[in-house]
Protein backbone atom coordinates (compact mmCIF):
# COMPACT_ATOMS: atom_id res chain seq x y z
CA UNK A 1 0.00 0.00 0.00
CA UNK A 2 1.28 3.46 -0.93
CA UNK A 3 2.26 6.09 1.60
CA UNK A 4 -1.00 8.00 2.03
CA UNK A 5 0.84 11.01 3.48
CA UNK A 6 2.46 11.63 0.04
CA UNK A 7 -0.66 11.17 -2.08
CA UNK A 8 -2.96 14.19 -2.66
CA UNK A 9 -6.43 13.73 -1.22
CA UNK A 10 -7.87 15.73 -4.15
CA UNK A 11 -5.91 16.45 -7.34
CA UNK A 12 -6.14 19.79 -9.16
CA UNK A 13 -7.62 18.11 -12.24
CA UNK A 14 -10.85 17.21 -10.43
CA UNK A 15 -11.02 20.11 -7.96
CA UNK A 16 -14.07 21.87 -9.49
CA UNK A 17 -16.15 18.65 -9.83
CA UNK A 18 -15.06 17.69 -6.30
CA UNK A 19 -16.33 21.04 -4.94
CA UNK A 20 -19.66 20.72 -6.77
CA UNK A 21 -20.27 17.16 -5.61
CA UNK A 22 -19.15 18.05 -2.08
CA UNK A 23 -21.78 20.82 -2.05
CA UNK A 24 -24.38 18.07 -2.37
CA UNK A 25 -23.26 16.68 1.00
CA UNK A 26 -24.21 20.03 2.55
CA UNK A 27 -27.48 20.01 0.61
CA UNK A 28 -28.73 16.73 2.05
CA UNK A 29 -27.38 17.69 5.47
CA UNK A 30 -29.65 20.74 5.27
CA UNK A 31 -32.66 18.53 4.52
CA UNK A 32 -31.83 16.16 7.37
CA UNK A 33 -31.60 18.82 10.04
CA UNK A 34 -34.43 21.05 9.00
CA UNK A 35 -36.56 17.89 9.24
CA UNK A 36 -35.43 16.54 12.64
CA UNK A 37 -37.27 19.26 14.64
CA UNK A 38 -40.41 18.60 12.55
CA UNK A 39 -41.13 15.48 14.63
CA UNK A 40 -41.81 17.67 17.64
CA UNK A 41 -43.45 20.43 15.54
CA UNK A 42 -45.96 18.13 13.83
CA UNK A 43 -46.70 16.47 17.16
CA UNK A 44 -47.88 19.77 18.63
CA UNK A 45 -49.61 21.25 15.56
CA UNK A 46 -51.52 18.08 14.66
CA UNK A 47 -51.80 16.78 18.26
CA UNK A 48 -50.11 13.44 17.63
CA UNK A 49 -48.56 10.98 20.07
CA UNK A 50 -44.81 10.24 19.98
CA UNK A 51 -45.17 7.14 17.81
CA UNK A 52 -47.34 8.92 15.23
CA UNK A 53 -44.97 11.90 15.11
CA UNK A 54 -41.98 9.59 14.59
CA UNK A 55 -43.43 8.62 11.20
CA UNK A 56 -41.82 11.83 9.93
CA UNK A 57 -38.47 10.04 10.21
CA UNK A 58 -39.94 6.79 8.88
CA UNK A 59 -41.07 8.60 5.72
CA UNK A 60 -37.82 10.56 5.45
CA UNK A 61 -35.43 7.64 5.82
CA UNK A 62 -37.72 5.06 4.24
CA UNK A 63 -37.21 6.85 0.93
CA UNK A 64 -33.53 5.92 1.04
CA UNK A 65 -34.34 2.22 1.29
CA UNK A 66 -36.86 2.40 -1.55
CA UNK A 67 -34.77 4.25 -4.11
CA UNK A 68 -31.10 3.40 -3.42
CA UNK A 69 -30.97 0.27 -5.61
CA UNK A 70 -32.82 1.89 -8.56
CA UNK A 71 -30.33 4.75 -8.21
CA UNK A 72 -27.44 2.31 -8.56
CA UNK A 73 -29.01 0.86 -11.74
CA UNK A 74 -29.27 4.36 -13.24
CA UNK A 75 -25.68 5.25 -12.31
CA UNK A 76 -24.33 1.97 -13.64
CA UNK A 77 -26.25 2.21 -16.92
CA UNK A 78 -25.60 5.90 -17.55
CA UNK A 79 -23.17 7.90 -15.39
CA UNK A 80 -22.55 9.50 -12.03
CA UNK A 81 -23.68 12.85 -13.46
CA UNK A 82 -27.04 11.46 -14.61
CA UNK A 83 -27.57 9.93 -11.16
CA UNK A 84 -26.93 13.32 -9.54
CA UNK A 85 -29.31 15.15 -11.89
CA UNK A 86 -32.12 12.64 -11.34
CA UNK A 87 -31.55 12.98 -7.59
CA UNK A 88 -31.82 16.75 -7.71
CA UNK A 89 -35.06 16.58 -9.74
CA UNK A 90 -36.66 14.26 -7.17
CA UNK A 91 -35.31 16.34 -4.27
CA UNK A 92 -36.87 19.51 -5.73
CA UNK A 93 -40.16 17.77 -6.48
CA UNK A 94 -40.54 16.52 -2.90
CA UNK A 95 -39.73 19.91 -1.42
CA UNK A 96 -42.20 21.71 -3.69
CA UNK A 97 -44.95 19.23 -2.76
CA UNK A 98 -45.02 20.90 0.65
CA UNK A 99 -47.07 23.64 -1.03
CA UNK A 100 -50.15 21.48 -1.79
CA UNK A 101 -49.61 19.49 1.45
CA UNK A 102 -50.00 22.68 3.50
CA UNK A 103 -53.04 23.72 1.46
CA UNK A 104 -54.73 20.36 2.20
CA UNK A 105 -53.54 20.36 5.85
CA UNK A 106 -52.98 16.62 5.56
CA UNK A 107 -50.29 14.90 7.63
CA UNK A 108 -50.00 11.97 5.21
CA UNK A 109 -49.48 14.37 2.28
CA UNK A 110 -46.55 15.89 4.19
CA UNK A 111 -45.18 12.40 4.79
CA UNK A 112 -45.55 11.60 1.09
CA UNK A 113 -43.69 14.81 0.19
CA UNK A 114 -40.84 13.88 2.53
CA UNK A 115 -40.81 10.36 1.10
CA UNK A 116 -40.40 11.68 -2.46
CA UNK A 117 -37.83 14.24 -1.34
CA UNK A 118 -35.69 11.43 0.02
CA UNK A 119 -35.97 9.53 -3.25
CA UNK A 120 -33.75 12.36 -4.44
CA UNK A 121 -31.45 12.13 -1.44
CA UNK A 122 -31.09 8.37 -2.04
CA UNK A 123 -29.95 9.09 -5.60
CA UNK A 124 -27.54 11.76 -4.40
CA UNK A 125 -25.97 9.65 -1.64
CA UNK A 126 -25.79 6.50 -3.77
CA UNK A 127 -24.03 8.53 -6.45
CA UNK A 128 -21.96 11.11 -4.59
CA UNK A 129 -20.25 8.85 -2.05
CA UNK A 130 -18.61 6.41 -4.51
CA UNK A 131 -18.05 9.29 -6.97
CA UNK A 132 -15.97 11.14 -4.38
CA UNK A 133 -14.04 7.96 -3.61
CA UNK A 134 -13.36 7.46 -7.33
CA UNK A 135 -11.88 10.97 -7.71
CA UNK A 136 -8.36 9.89 -6.89
CA UNK A 137 -6.25 7.11 -5.41
CA UNK A 138 -7.98 4.24 -3.61
CA UNK A 139 -5.45 4.62 -0.78
CA UNK A 140 -6.78 8.09 0.04
CA UNK A 141 -10.45 7.30 -0.70
CA UNK A 142 -11.57 7.13 2.95
CA UNK A 143 -9.78 10.43 3.73
CA UNK A 144 -11.35 12.04 0.66
CA UNK A 145 -14.82 10.85 1.66
CA UNK A 146 -14.31 12.09 5.23
CA UNK A 147 -13.29 15.49 3.82
CA UNK A 148 -16.39 15.70 1.62
CA UNK A 149 -18.60 14.45 4.44
CA UNK A 150 -17.18 17.18 6.68
CA UNK A 151 -19.36 19.63 4.76
CA UNK A 152 -22.49 17.65 5.56
CA UNK A 153 -22.75 19.19 9.05
CA UNK A 154 -22.23 22.65 7.50
CA UNK A 155 -25.50 22.09 5.65
CA UNK A 156 -27.00 20.58 8.78
CA UNK A 157 -26.15 23.69 10.81
CA UNK A 158 -27.81 25.81 8.12
CA UNK A 159 -30.88 23.58 8.30
CA UNK A 160 -31.03 24.01 12.06
CA UNK A 161 -30.70 27.78 11.72
CA UNK A 162 -33.64 27.90 9.30
CA UNK A 163 -35.66 25.56 11.54
CA UNK A 164 -35.02 27.70 14.61
CA UNK A 165 -35.38 31.13 13.01
CA UNK A 166 -38.10 30.66 10.43
CA UNK A 167 -40.09 27.68 11.74
CA UNK A 168 -39.85 26.92 15.47
CA UNK A 169 -39.63 30.58 16.42
CA UNK A 170 -42.76 31.39 14.42
CA UNK A 171 -45.04 28.51 15.47
CA UNK A 172 -48.03 29.76 17.44
CA UNK A 173 -48.83 26.23 18.64
CA UNK A 174 -45.63 26.36 20.71
CA UNK A 175 -46.70 29.45 22.68
CA UNK A 176 -47.06 29.15 26.46
CA UNK A 177 -48.74 31.27 29.11
CA UNK A 178 -47.08 33.00 32.07
CA UNK A 179 -47.01 29.71 33.99
CA UNK A 180 -45.30 27.83 31.16
CA UNK A 181 -48.42 25.89 30.15
CA UNK A 182 -49.30 25.38 26.48
CA UNK A 183 -51.95 27.74 25.11
CA UNK A 184 -52.75 25.80 21.92
CA UNK A 185 -54.50 22.94 23.73
CA UNK A 186 -56.90 25.35 25.46
CA UNK A 187 -58.14 27.13 22.31
CA UNK A 188 -61.62 26.73 20.87
CA UNK A 189 -62.10 24.74 17.66
CA UNK A 190 -62.13 27.77 15.34
CA UNK A 191 -59.13 29.46 16.96
CA UNK A 192 -57.18 26.20 16.99
CA UNK A 193 -57.95 25.63 13.28
CA UNK A 194 -56.63 29.11 12.46
CA UNK A 195 -53.38 28.46 14.36
CA UNK A 196 -53.03 25.07 12.64
CA UNK A 197 -53.41 26.66 9.19
CA UNK A 198 -50.91 29.39 10.02
CA UNK A 199 -48.32 26.99 11.47
CA UNK A 200 -48.47 24.59 8.51
CA UNK A 201 -47.77 27.52 6.20
CA UNK A 202 -44.77 28.39 8.37
CA UNK A 203 -43.45 24.85 7.86
CA UNK A 204 -44.21 24.95 4.13
CA UNK A 205 -42.29 28.05 3.10
CA UNK A 206 -38.66 26.99 3.83
CA UNK A 207 -39.19 23.69 1.98
CA UNK A 208 -40.57 25.47 -1.08
CA UNK A 209 -37.58 27.84 -1.03
CA UNK A 210 -35.29 24.81 -0.72
CA UNK A 211 -36.92 23.22 -3.76
CA UNK A 212 -36.22 26.31 -5.86
CA UNK A 213 -32.56 26.38 -4.74
CA UNK A 214 -32.17 22.69 -5.63
CA UNK A 215 -33.43 23.48 -9.15
CA UNK A 216 -30.67 26.12 -9.41
CA UNK A 217 -28.03 23.54 -8.34
CA UNK A 218 -29.39 21.09 -10.90
CA UNK A 219 -28.94 23.62 -13.71
CA UNK A 220 -25.40 24.47 -12.53
CA UNK A 221 -24.25 20.82 -12.42
CA UNK A 222 -25.94 20.11 -15.78
CA UNK A 223 -23.76 22.66 -17.58
CA UNK A 224 -20.43 21.71 -15.94
CA UNK A 225 -18.31 18.93 -17.43
CA UNK A 226 -17.86 16.16 -14.85
CA UNK A 227 -15.21 13.37 -14.96
CA UNK A 228 -16.50 9.86 -15.48
CA UNK A 229 -14.64 6.71 -14.55
CA UNK A 230 -14.96 4.02 -17.19
CA UNK A 231 -15.67 0.49 -16.06
CA UNK A 232 -12.67 -1.78 -16.45
CA UNK A 233 -14.55 -4.60 -18.24
CA UNK A 234 -17.94 -5.64 -19.53
CA UNK A 235 -18.53 -8.40 -17.01
CA UNK A 236 -19.77 -6.11 -14.28
CA UNK A 237 -23.51 -6.61 -14.71
CA UNK A 238 -25.60 -5.53 -11.74
CA UNK A 239 -26.61 -9.03 -10.66
CA UNK A 240 -23.07 -10.38 -10.93
CA UNK A 241 -21.80 -7.42 -8.92
CA UNK A 242 -24.38 -8.06 -6.20
CA UNK A 243 -23.43 -11.73 -6.04
CA UNK A 244 -19.77 -10.82 -5.62
CA UNK A 245 -20.17 -8.14 -2.98
CA UNK A 246 -22.37 -10.27 -0.73
CA UNK A 247 -19.61 -12.86 -0.55
CA UNK A 248 -17.37 -10.28 1.16
CA UNK A 249 -17.73 -10.11 4.94
CA UNK A 250 -16.05 -6.69 4.97
CA UNK A 251 -18.92 -5.29 2.88
CA UNK A 252 -21.80 -7.17 4.53
CA UNK A 253 -20.56 -6.16 7.97
CA UNK A 254 -20.39 -2.56 6.76
CA UNK A 255 -24.04 -2.62 5.66
CA UNK A 256 -25.10 -3.91 9.09
CA UNK A 257 -22.89 -1.40 10.94
CA UNK A 258 -24.17 1.46 8.79
CA UNK A 259 -27.80 0.57 9.51
CA UNK A 260 -27.19 0.63 13.27
CA UNK A 261 -25.07 3.79 13.09
CA UNK A 262 -27.65 5.80 11.14
CA UNK A 263 -30.38 4.60 13.50
CA UNK A 264 -28.31 5.81 16.46
CA UNK A 265 -27.56 9.16 14.83
CA UNK A 266 -31.17 9.92 14.00
CA UNK A 267 -32.36 8.90 17.47
CA UNK A 268 -29.78 11.14 19.15
CA UNK A 269 -30.54 14.11 16.90
CA UNK A 270 -34.32 13.70 16.83
CA UNK A 271 -35.01 13.06 20.50
CA UNK A 272 -32.63 15.69 21.83
CA UNK A 273 -35.68 18.00 21.65
CA UNK A 274 -37.82 15.68 23.77
CA UNK A 275 -34.95 15.15 26.21
CA UNK A 276 -34.57 18.93 26.57
CA UNK A 277 -38.33 19.48 26.87
CA UNK A 278 -38.42 17.07 29.80
CA UNK A 279 -35.95 19.46 31.49
CA UNK A 280 -38.26 22.42 30.87
CA UNK A 281 -36.48 23.67 27.73
CA UNK A 282 -38.80 24.58 24.83
CA UNK A 283 -38.11 23.59 21.23
CA UNK A 284 -36.67 26.91 20.13
CA UNK A 285 -34.12 26.96 22.97
CA UNK A 286 -33.46 23.23 22.50
CA UNK A 287 -32.13 24.00 19.02
CA UNK A 288 -29.14 25.62 20.75
CA UNK A 289 -28.15 22.20 22.10
CA UNK A 290 -28.61 20.73 18.63
CA UNK A 291 -26.27 23.50 17.39
CA UNK A 292 -23.69 22.40 19.97
CA UNK A 293 -24.05 18.79 18.85
CA UNK A 294 -23.56 19.66 15.20
CA UNK A 295 -20.72 22.05 16.01
CA UNK A 296 -18.64 19.38 17.70
CA UNK A 297 -19.74 16.91 15.00
CA UNK A 298 -18.24 19.26 12.40
CA UNK A 299 -15.08 19.71 14.47
CA UNK A 300 -14.81 15.94 14.82
CA UNK A 301 -15.12 15.43 11.06
CA UNK A 302 -12.13 17.63 10.27
CA UNK A 303 -10.09 16.30 13.21
CA UNK A 304 -10.75 12.67 12.30
CA UNK A 305 -9.92 13.29 8.63
CA UNK A 306 -6.49 14.42 9.85
CA UNK A 307 -6.09 11.57 12.35
CA UNK A 308 -6.81 8.98 9.66
CA UNK A 309 -3.38 9.78 8.23
CA UNK A 310 -1.82 8.21 11.32
CA UNK A 311 -4.41 5.87 12.88
CA UNK A 312 -6.00 2.79 11.32
CA UNK A 313 -9.56 3.69 10.31
CA UNK A 314 -11.07 0.58 11.91
CA UNK A 315 -9.26 1.18 15.18
CA UNK A 316 -10.36 4.82 15.34
CA UNK A 317 -13.93 3.75 14.53
CA UNK A 318 -13.87 1.27 17.42
CA UNK A 319 -12.45 3.77 19.93
CA UNK A 320 -15.00 6.44 19.09
CA UNK A 321 -17.82 3.89 19.23
CA UNK A 322 -16.84 3.00 22.78
CA UNK A 323 -16.73 6.72 23.58
CA UNK A 324 -20.30 7.03 22.26
CA UNK A 325 -21.37 4.15 24.53
CA UNK A 326 -19.94 5.97 27.56
CA UNK A 327 -21.76 9.20 26.67
CA UNK A 328 -25.01 7.26 26.11
CA UNK A 329 -24.67 5.88 29.65
CA UNK A 330 -24.34 9.46 30.88
CA UNK A 331 -27.43 10.44 28.87
CA UNK A 332 -29.43 7.63 30.48
CA UNK A 333 -28.34 7.81 34.08
CA UNK A 334 -27.46 11.49 34.65
CA UNK A 335 -30.68 13.40 35.19
CA UNK A 336 -30.65 17.11 34.45
CA UNK A 337 -28.38 19.21 32.25
CA UNK A 338 -25.47 16.82 32.75
CA UNK A 339 -27.38 14.15 30.85
CA UNK A 340 -28.23 16.62 28.08
CA UNK A 341 -24.58 17.59 27.70
CA UNK A 342 -23.66 13.90 27.55
CA UNK A 343 -26.14 13.54 24.68
CA UNK A 344 -24.53 16.51 22.92
CA UNK A 345 -21.08 14.91 23.30
CA UNK A 346 -22.22 11.73 21.54
CA UNK A 347 -22.08 13.75 18.31
CA UNK A 348 -18.30 14.12 18.51
CA UNK A 349 -17.94 10.35 18.54
CA UNK A 350 -20.40 9.98 15.64
CA UNK A 351 -18.50 12.39 13.39
CA UNK A 352 -16.17 9.73 12.00
CA UNK A 353 -18.62 6.89 11.63
CA UNK A 354 -20.67 7.20 8.43
CA UNK A 355 -17.87 7.92 5.91
CA UNK A 356 -15.43 5.58 7.64
CA UNK A 357 -17.83 2.62 7.64
CA UNK A 358 -18.54 3.51 4.01
CA UNK A 359 -14.86 3.62 3.08
CA UNK A 360 -13.98 0.39 4.89
CA UNK A 361 -16.92 -1.47 3.33
CA UNK A 362 -16.19 -0.33 -0.25
CA UNK A 363 -12.39 -0.75 -0.11
CA UNK A 364 -11.12 -2.90 -2.96
CA UNK A 365 -14.49 -3.37 -4.70
CA UNK A 366 -13.53 -1.47 -7.87
CA UNK A 367 -16.47 -1.26 -10.31
CA UNK A 368 -18.64 -3.18 -7.85
CA UNK A 369 -18.62 -0.07 -5.65
CA UNK A 370 -21.65 1.36 -7.50
CA UNK A 371 -24.16 -1.35 -6.50
CA UNK A 372 -22.37 -1.78 -3.16
CA UNK A 373 -22.93 1.91 -2.47
CA UNK A 374 -26.66 1.41 -3.05
CA UNK A 375 -26.87 -1.17 -0.27
CA UNK A 376 -24.93 1.09 2.10
CA UNK A 377 -27.43 3.85 1.35
CA UNK A 378 -30.33 1.41 1.81
CA UNK A 379 -28.88 0.77 5.27
CA UNK A 380 -29.94 4.33 6.11
CA UNK A 381 -33.37 2.71 6.65
CA UNK A 382 -32.11 2.25 10.21
CA UNK A 383 -33.01 5.91 10.61
CA UNK A 384 -36.60 5.07 9.62
CA UNK A 385 -37.60 2.35 12.05
CA UNK A 386 -35.34 2.88 15.07
CA UNK A 387 -36.84 6.29 16.00
CA UNK A 388 -40.25 4.57 15.94
CA UNK A 389 -38.95 2.04 18.49
CA UNK A 390 -37.72 4.92 20.64
CA UNK A 391 -41.11 6.62 20.24
CA UNK A 392 -42.79 3.44 21.50
CA UNK A 393 -40.61 3.56 24.63
CA UNK A 394 -41.60 7.20 25.15
CA UNK A 395 -45.29 6.23 24.89
CA UNK A 396 -45.03 3.52 27.59
CA UNK A 397 -46.78 5.61 30.23
CA UNK A 398 -48.50 8.18 28.00
CA UNK A 399 -47.62 10.87 25.46
CA UNK A 400 -45.36 12.73 27.92
CA UNK A 401 -41.65 12.12 28.39
CA UNK A 402 -41.55 11.20 32.09
CA UNK A 403 -44.89 9.43 32.59
CA UNK A 404 -43.09 6.44 34.04
CA UNK A 405 -39.61 5.50 35.23
CA UNK A 406 -37.61 2.60 33.81
CA UNK A 407 -34.45 1.37 35.55
CA UNK A 408 -34.88 4.29 37.95
CA UNK A 409 -34.83 7.03 35.28
CA UNK A 410 -37.53 8.81 33.21
CA UNK A 411 -38.60 6.93 30.08
CA UNK A 412 -37.03 9.57 27.81
CA UNK A 413 -33.65 8.92 29.48
CA UNK A 414 -34.01 5.15 29.28
CA UNK A 415 -34.95 5.30 25.59
CA UNK A 416 -31.31 6.08 24.78
CA UNK A 417 -30.49 2.45 25.53
CA UNK A 418 -31.29 1.92 21.83
CA UNK A 419 -28.46 4.09 20.42
CA UNK A 420 -26.13 2.58 23.05
CA UNK A 421 -26.79 -0.88 21.62
CA UNK A 422 -26.28 0.47 18.10
CA UNK A 423 -22.85 1.86 18.98
CA UNK A 424 -21.77 -1.51 20.35
CA UNK A 425 -22.53 -3.03 16.94
CA UNK A 426 -20.43 -0.32 15.24
CA UNK A 427 -17.58 -0.93 17.71
CA UNK A 428 -17.56 -4.61 16.78
CA UNK A 429 -17.28 -3.73 13.08
CA UNK A 430 -14.41 -1.35 13.80
CA UNK A 431 -12.63 -4.08 15.76
CA UNK A 432 -13.01 -6.60 12.94
CA UNK A 433 -11.91 -3.97 10.41
CA UNK A 434 -8.42 -3.58 11.85
CA UNK A 435 -8.02 -7.04 13.40
CA UNK A 436 -9.41 -9.17 10.55
CA UNK A 437 -10.20 -7.32 7.29
CA UNK A 438 -6.99 -5.28 7.13
CA UNK A 439 -4.87 -8.38 7.76
CA UNK A 440 -6.63 -10.16 4.91
CA UNK A 441 -6.01 -7.18 2.60
CA UNK A 442 -2.30 -7.09 3.49
CA UNK A 443 -2.06 -10.87 2.97
CA UNK A 444 -3.69 -10.61 -0.47
CA UNK A 445 -1.31 -7.76 -1.40
CA UNK A 446 1.68 -9.95 -0.57
Automatic annotation (TrEMBL):
<keyword id="KW-0472">Membrane</keyword>
<feature type="transmembrane region" description="Helical">
    <location>
        <begin position="55"/>
        <end position="75"/>
    </location>
</feature>
<keyword id="KW-1133">Transmembrane helix</keyword>
<protein>
    <submittedName>
        <fullName>L-fucose:H+ symporter permease</fullName>
    </submittedName>
</protein>
<keyword id="KW-1003">Cell membrane</keyword>
<feature type="transmembrane region" description="Helical">
    <location>
        <begin position="251"/>
        <end position="274"/>
    </location>
</feature>
<feature type="transmembrane region" description="Helical">
    <location>
        <begin position="340"/>
        <end position="363"/>
    </location>
</feature>
<dbReference type="Pfam" id="PF07690">
    <property type="entry name" value="MFS_1"/>
</dbReference>
<dbReference type="InterPro" id="IPR011701">
    <property type="entry name" value="MFS"/>
</dbReference>
<feature type="transmembrane region" description="Helical">
    <location>
        <begin position="375"/>
        <end position="394"/>
    </location>
</feature>
<dbReference type="InterPro" id="IPR050375">
    <property type="entry name" value="MFS_TsgA-like"/>
</dbReference>
<feature type="transmembrane region" description="Helical">
    <location>
        <begin position="414"/>
        <end position="434"/>
    </location>
</feature>
<feature type="transmembrane region" description="Helical">
    <location>
        <begin position="145"/>
        <end position="167"/>
    </location>
</feature>
<keyword id="KW-0812">Transmembrane</keyword>
<feature type="transmembrane region" description="Helical">
    <location>
        <begin position="107"/>
        <end position="124"/>
    </location>
</feature>
<feature type="transmembrane region" description="Helical">
    <location>
        <begin position="207"/>
        <end position="224"/>
    </location>
</feature>
<dbReference type="InterPro" id="IPR036259">
    <property type="entry name" value="MFS_trans_sf"/>
</dbReference>
<dbReference type="InterPro" id="IPR005275">
    <property type="entry name" value="Lfuc_symporter_FucP"/>
</dbReference>
<feature type="transmembrane region" description="Helical">
    <location>
        <begin position="286"/>
        <end position="304"/>
    </location>
</feature>
<feature type="transmembrane region" description="Helical">
    <location>
        <begin position="82"/>
        <end position="101"/>
    </location>
</feature>
<feature type="transmembrane region" description="Helical">
    <location>
        <begin position="316"/>
        <end position="334"/>
    </location>
</feature>
Amino acid sequence: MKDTQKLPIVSKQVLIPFILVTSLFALWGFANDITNPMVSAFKKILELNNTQASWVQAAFYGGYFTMALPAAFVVKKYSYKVGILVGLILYAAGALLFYPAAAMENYFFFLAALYILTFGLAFLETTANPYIMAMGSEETATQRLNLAQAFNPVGALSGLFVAQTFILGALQSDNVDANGNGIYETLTGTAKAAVKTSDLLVIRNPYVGLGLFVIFMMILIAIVKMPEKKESDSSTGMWRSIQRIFKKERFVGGVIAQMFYVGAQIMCWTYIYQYAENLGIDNRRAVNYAYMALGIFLLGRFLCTYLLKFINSGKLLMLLSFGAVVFCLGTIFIEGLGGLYSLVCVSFCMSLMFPTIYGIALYGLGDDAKPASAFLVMAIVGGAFMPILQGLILDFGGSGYADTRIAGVPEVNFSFILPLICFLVVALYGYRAFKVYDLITKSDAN
